[in-house]
Write a structure and sequence with these properties.
329 residues, nine-stranded mixed beta sheet, 24% helix, alpha/beta, Rossmann fold, 2 domains
């Protein structure tokens, strides 16, 4: 062996030893590779409650305060603007393939098969989910369709309830008094959550002959201030006070149990209440298994940008010419 080759091998040996010693030094200091940022995917698309405005608002806070990578899927028109009335398609759903958490806020969607399969593949893995309001009726497939069960029984098994009824439309005003349950006050999702007034009319999800599905733990309840059921004198079946937020689990086809947080209080104006933003953000962190990151006073509700949503309602009440944000890259 030539002398130069011996010298080169010696230098390589010394460099490897230096690297090995440096690695030991890092371990001794407790240094560890940074944890990958959780990828949260919001799937929006409802004709009534402006999920295209409230969910990006929550996404901005998650990105700013909690180190999350965020993607949002939308219903769009053929020019690329938000159109929640487009119930038959969704743009950006492919982001679910790498998601750590799905936040679902859709209403009566009927997506193309390939795109709905992306949702099914996510659920099959038993990954966590957060749902808001109309996610109790997230999908509407035609009678006899292979996915028709997702109109009712399957969504109920996943999130805790299907669409039943509500206490009625009564215009834009405070319609529900919302308060955390004392029995659940030690749950990390309720950290810093105070009672607040909501514009959402109360959804009926439990009471009378109806019961939430699965291993549900109730967290928050609401009392309807006005009710069509009260006028009809059938409050025995549809009580004025009922659950508005809960947690549960579901089991993926792989046997893994996924965490679920669900809230029915999601009128666009409800998210102007700091307590509701804290509740929602706490629920997202809990679903991710990051409850140790929820401060004792709860997640900060401080907005990352101006939040001035349009009112709830059907038709063309949504913001015209709204460009989607956080589309998957």
């Amino acid at each position: 062996m030539e002398q130069g080759s011996v010298i080169c091998q010696g230098i390589r040996f010394l460099n490897m030893n230096r690297f090995f010693l440096f690695a030991l030094w890092l371990i001794a200091l407790g240094a560890a590779p940074a944890a990958p940022e959780p990828h949260v995917v919001f799937v929006t698309g409802d004709e009534e409650y402006r999920s295209e405005e409230s969910m990006p608002m929550l996404a901005q806070i998650l990105e700013r305060d909690h180190g999350c990578r965020v993607s949002i899927a939308y219903s769009l028109d053929d020019k690329g603007f938000v159109d929640p009335n487009n119930t038959k398609d969704v743009t950006g759903i492919e982001a679910l393939k790498s998601a750590d958490l799905l936040v679902l806020f859709t209403r009566f969607r009927n997506w193309p098969e390939a795109k709905f399969q992306v949702f099914l593949d996510y659920i099959a893995q038993g990954k966590p989910l957060v749902g808001f309001r109309t996610a109790t009726h997230a999908f509407r497939f035609p009678q006899g369709h292979r996915h028709e069960a997702w109109n009712g029984t399957k969504i109920a098994e996943l999130v805790g309830q299907k669409w039943l009824t509500h206490h009625g439309h009564h215009g834009t005003q405070v319609l529900t008094k919302v308060r955390p349950l004392n029995a659940a006050k030690s749950h990390p999702i309720l950290r810093g959550v105070k009672p607040f007034d909501a514009y959402s009319w109360l959804y009926h999800v439990q009471g009378g002959e109806d019961k939430l599905h699965g291993d549900v733990t109730l967290l928050v309840e609401g009392t309807a201030l006005k009710s069509k059921h009260q006028r009809a004198k059938n409050l025995k079946s549809y009580p004025l006070t009922g659950p508005t937020a809960w947690v549960k689990t579901y089991t993926g086809t792989n046997g893994r149990k996924g965490r679920v947080f669900f809230s029915t209080i999601a009128h666009p104006y409800d998210f102007k209440a700091g307590a509701n933003r804290t509740l929602s953000l706490n629920g997202i962190l809990w679903a991710l298994g990051m409850e140790d990151k929820i401060p004792a006073e709860g997640c900060s509700p401080k907005l990352a940008a101006k939040y001035d949503p349009n009112d709830a309602g059907f038709g063309k009440i949504f913001k015209q010419g709204l460009k989607p944000s956080f589309l998957p890259r």
